[in-house]
Design brief:
Number of strands of chain A: 18
Organism (chain A): mine drainage metagenome
Number of domains of chain B: 1
Largest sheet of chain A: 16 strands, antiparallel, barrel
Radius of gyration of chain A: 22 Å
Largest interface: A-B, 45 and 29 residues
Helix content of chain A: under 10%
Number of domains of chain A: 1
Mean pLDDT of chain B: 89
Order of helices and strands of chain A: HEEEEEEHEEEEEEEEEHEEE
Distance between the termini of chain B: 42 Å
Protein name (chain A): Porin domain-containing protein
Mean pLDDT of chain A: 89
Radius of gyration of chain B: 18 Å
CATH architecture of chain B: 3-Layer(aba) Sandwich
CATH superfamily of chain A: Porin
Number of strands of chain B: 5
Oligomer: heterodimer
Shape of chain B: globular
Order of helices and strands of chain B: HEHEHHEHEE
CATH superfamily of chain B: Periplasmic binding protein-like II
Number of helices of chain A: 3
Strand content of chain B: 15-25%
Strand content of chain A: over 45%
Helix content of chain B: 40-55%
Low-confidence stretches of chain A: 1-30
Protein name (chain B): Phosphate ABC transporter substrate-binding protein
Chain lengths: 383, 140
């Protein structure tokens, strides 16, 4: 797959260069005001460490991580650390492309670089485009830039909600239409595609995946809402069992108010497969010069099985029963241009009948109802 | 002695007043049909949320370089964002392929010259650099 992606990128960029060359010969005298460089290189990264007081399970922030802080190691760098390089190519004003290669901790326990995004965009007008390729799903307000720590205040977006981001990207097409409505700007995105997601002990295949997402920006407030659905099947690598194809659908709603010196935001999701569950967070922060202290509360519910579904298997029950809640206190410090330093304390409480999102908990151990503490520090940068 | 001190104070106050006179203004070409803009309209153009002026004509924003005092003043007054908030804002847009920040031109005079010759362009310069080739559309 990676080889295929690299090949695709090469073909794409060579094609782009020849289109652009043809364009240049046709173009008139250069205009210093409108001629932007064709390729724009950039990147971002995060270096982080975290420690958990719970030594019988691993605390992870991303469901694809095989290990974290806890039972595997006292201190772990895997939860946040990553590096990504990004190329944005403007072949013509209407034809642009995006390639992002990301090295982060994968399900297989390596930092092997992977094509995160690769897409070609055709802009019919500046407010209407279509793209084809590997495209981020705008499930939550920060899910497209989840990897870019510098772009948000927290160390990671609230875990209990963002852990629900079961499918980060789609291989397929999308379209965006933006319109001004009075003083507001409204952006609608529609997406169609498929996805294969590797987790440490399972592989989930999704097809017939589609979604529609709306973002309304009015003054200092941003609203976001979305609906998506897909047919998914999971293969469990330990047992070799492949689950049935199940229709999944997610409804998401969020709002953010940011007048400059402070912010408050909240998001909510309801997931429906053979069970229904929900998750939410509320977060607020206050900016004092280069420091932004913030507080967050997040929680998820255990799933309730639908009567119409077949009787749940043991794995289904385990997946549906992972309720936990988190209270976080942190600070972001913009200590120099293009760099930030963040520290965060999380108090995590597991539900009375589950180990929450802890992984690698030994089979004979139950941590039901436990409260534990996590401290983390990261440096984020962009270039 | 006391009189001397008073003069020193007065002088200090005057110099403060002079330095405080540095004031950012938003300008378009004098050939542009745009006569005035609100803070919100200007913010939307510079943050890439709209690509036209309220009269539907194409808008082409010009930024001054990162770290320049005029840029920081402009964004804190118009978009209520400091330089880190602005970098974070654009990081999200650039790395999702949704857009690019405005083109950079350094210096009030260079910005004014670029704007004067392009009826679509819009930029911000110090009030003292304004001449008849450009029109002030907002004093934030």
């Amino acid at each position: 797959m990676t080889k295929l992606n690299c090949l695709a990128a090469f073909v794409l960029f060579s094609a782009g260069i020849s289109i652009a060359r043809a364009d240049q010969t046709a173009a008139s005298a250069p205009n210093p005001l409108t001629d932007q460089p064709m390729f724009k290189l950039g990147g971002f990264g995060t270096l982080g460490l975290s420690h958990s007081s719970e030594s019988l399970g691993d605390y992870i922030v991303d469901s694809t991580s095989p290990k974290g802080a806890g039972i595997s190691s006292d201190w772990s760098a895997t939860n946040a650390s990553r590096f990504a390089a990004h190329v944005n190519a403007n072949f013509t004003p209407k034809v642009t492309a995006l390639l992002q290669v990301d090295s982060e901790y994968h399900a297989d326990g390596t930092y092997r670089p992977e094509v995160e995004w690769l897409s070609v965009k055709y802009a019919f007008t500046p407010n209407f485009y279509m793209r084809a390729g590997r495209i981020a799903l705008p499930t939550f307000m920060d899910s497209e830039s989840w990897d870019v720590g510098y772009s948000y205040t927290w160390i990671t977006p609230p875990v209990d909600l963002y852990h629900q981001l079961s499918i980060p990207s789609s291989d397929g097409i999308d379209a965006m239409y933006r319109a001004e409505i009075g003083d507001a700007v409204n952006t609608v995105k529609a997406i169609y595609g498929k996805n294969t997601l590797d987790r440490p002990s399972s592989v989930t295949t999704s097809r017939e995946m589609w979604g529609i997402f709306d973002t309304l920006e009015y003054g200092e407030t941003t609203y976001h809402a979305g609906y998506q659905q897909r047919m998914s099947s999971t293969e469990y690598l330990l047992t070799g069992v492949t689950g049935a194809w199940i229709q999944n659908s997610d409804i998401t709603v969020g709002a953010n108010y940011d007048p400059g010196n402070w912010f408050v935001m909240s998001e909510w999701i309801q997931r429906r497969s053979n069970y229904v569950s929900s998750a939410m967070y509320v977060s607020a922060g206050y900016r004092i010069n280069k420091f932004t202290p913030y507080l967050t509360h997040s929680q998820n519910s255990s799933g309730s099985f639908l009567q119409s579904s077949p009787p749940p298997t043991a794995t289904d029950l385990q997946l549906a029963n992972r309720a936990q809640s988190t209270d976080s206190l942190g600070v972001r410090w913009d200590f120099m241009r293009n760099f930030d330093f963040k520290m965060q304390y999380d108090r995590v409480t597991l539900s009375d009948n589950s180990n929450g999102y802890l992984i690698n908990v030994p089979a004979n151990v139950t941590l039901y109802g436990t409260t534990f503490h996590v401290i983390s520090a990261v440096v984020d940068f962009v270039f | 002695m006391i009189i001397n001190l008073k003069f020193t104070l007065l002088f200090a106050l005057l110099s403060l007043a002079v330095s405080a006179q540095a004031e950012v203004v938003v300008v378009v070409s004098s050939k542009s049909s745009v006569t005035s803009l609100t803070t919100e309209q200007t913010a939307k153009i510079f943050l890439g949320k709209v690509v036209t002026f309220p009269n539907e004509h194409a808008a082409f924003p010009i930024d001054q370089p990162e770290g320049s005092a005029i840029r920081d003043e402009f964004y804190s007054k118009v978009a209520h964002k400091n330089s880190s908030q602005l970098t974070a804002y654009w990081a999200k847009i650039i790395f999702t392929g949704e857009g690019r920040p405005p083109q950079l031109i350094a210096g009030d005079v260079a910005v004014r010259k670029a704007i004067a010759s392009n009826p679509s362009a819009i930029g911000y310069i110090d009030k003292s650099a304004v001449n008849r080739s450009v029109r002030v559309v907002l004093k934030p």
